[in-house]
Amino acid sequence: MAFFRVEKLSMWFGGLAALDGVGFEIPPGSIFSLIGPNGAGKTTLFNCINGIYKPASGSIRLNGRELTGKKPHAIAQMGVARTFQNIELFSQMTLMENLMLGRHLFMKTGLFRGGFMWGRKSFAGREEVLHRKKAAELIELLELQPYRGRPVGGLPYGIQKRVELGRALAMEPKLILLDEPCAGMNAEERRDMILRIKTVKEALGAAVFLIEHDMAIVMDISDQVLVMNFGKPVAQGTPGQVQAHPEVAAAYLGEDDPDDCLA
Ligand SMILES: Nc1ncnc2c1ncn2[C@@H]1O[C@H](COP(=O)(O)OP(=O)(O)OP(=O)(O)O)[C@@H](O)[C@H]1O
């Protein structure tokens, strides 16, 4: 059974096929990148995977379990987390509180309330202590200790993106969807984010599915790359294979020489 398999996925907006028979597999614990020009269908594919859109046809399976037709919350509980292009954090809340929001999928009692209302020795209190411990482990893994008690709204952009990654990881995903995690970052922040993405794979064993426009990043960190154009897969393979694919440069950047475009 494949870890993650998409088969014959199609999605229409009026007469436009945003996804047209898309199929691929992501191996467990790998970094899999999706590239393609504007309008290729990348975001639509992510939206179908995490249940924001319901595809017209096709299937999306994680460890054999069908995701299509399920609500985003149910899909998150099944092990698929996501970060967005724009930062979607609660800016007035601290780093720890934002990570605890990621843990709420696992909580039997209400968020925060249990521990405050019934004391740390109650079931709810013990549960909160456990979740705080898990969140603290992530803070350490992502080297966010200096920012732990600070409202995230005042933190530098690169750190906020790291917090967002942490909140998605707090859901203990098997697969994490990262939508342009390096967008708007300076060179140092990009290097840092690449390091963190590698950590997700190596330390946590989660598979990473990445949309990224920066080819240097894609070629550096990906185990496999899928190229899409006009809602269809154009090529798939290792970074080297994709770079050498005759159709890729023309389809992706409208140029003839792949070496010029994807180096
Ligand atoms: N909600 C929508 N309603 C109508 N058309 C849409 C909608 N969302 C996307 N589309 C269209 O579907 C196609 C695929 O769009 P999508 O946003 O998935 O592409 P993309 O590869 O993510 O592009 P970008 O790199 O610009 O984010 C485009 O032609 C787009 O205009």
TrEMBL record:
GO molecular function, one term: ATP hydrolysis activity
Keyword Glycosyltransferase: no
Pfam families, per database record: ABC_tran (PF00005), BCA_ABC_TP_C (PF12399)
Domain ABC transporter positions: 4-255
Keyword line: ATP-binding, Nucleotide-binding, Transport
Keyword Transport belongs to the record: yes
InterPro entries registered for this protein in UniProt: AAA+_ATPase, ABC_AA/LPS_Transport, ABC_transporter-like_ATP-bd, BCA_ABC_TP_C, P-loop_NTPase
Protein name (database record): ABC transporter related
